């Protein structure tokens, strides 16, 4: 059985919405060493063969990553080649290679994905979808890349969350940039 991994970039105050300029998907400031963060992301890519997104995040990524022809991080190549699943009741043509629209019952469709053979399924961004996955008890692990930034406003991962199972910390890793990776698994 495959695992569903929620990976989010977060501020110290828990904001995961990319409002403002606190996060840059390509690495951002050239004066900040992000090589260790990029290595951690590569580890995650190597352990996953599917990406699950909500429609808005999918369309945002589809509009950005395929155009990054000079990307040296490996992110663009991975995103273009990985199997992508977008949960949407309105999108019919994904218009990005290796993409499938999941238009049926989201819980059932994702349970089917998890039951299939393969590596991890990762979801990122997709705040509405991720909150629904949390509420449905489908998340196996949370990977939070916490940036040393406070923004004060914006949508947070666990706003209004109820019924979140007990979590256990399985890793905390500090990067040269001050970013911290916190990995939590749902307690069984």
Helix content: 25-40%
* Average pLDDT taken over every residue: 90
Tell me, briefly, the overall form.
Answer: globular
User: Number of helical segments?
Assistant: 5
| Low-pLDDT residue spans | none
The value of Rg in angstroms is 16 Å
Strands in their spatial order, largest beta sheet: 4-3-2-5-1-6-8-7
Largest sheet: 8 strands, mixed
- First-residue to last-residue Cα separation: 15 Å
Q: What is the ordering of alpha helices and beta strands?
A: EHEHHEEHEHEEE
Question: Could you give the topology of this structure?
Answer:
Layout lengths: L3 E8 L23 H13 E7 H10 L10 H7 L1 E5 L11 E4 L3 H10 L4 E5 L2 H9 L5 E7 L19 E8 L5 E7 L2
Parallel strand pairs: 1-5, 1-6, 2-3, 2-5, 3-4
Antiparallel strand pairs: 6-8, 7-8
Q: Can you describe what's shown?
A:
It is built from five helices and eight strands. The chain has helices at residues 35-47, 55-64, 75-81, 106-115, 127-135; strands at 4-11, 48-54, 83-87, 99-102, 120-124, 141-147, 167-174, 180-186. Strands 4-3-2-5-1-6-8-7 form an eight-stranded mixed sheet, with helices on both faces. A hairpin with a 5-residue loop joins strand 7 (167-174) and strand 8. It starts with a strand and ends with a strand.
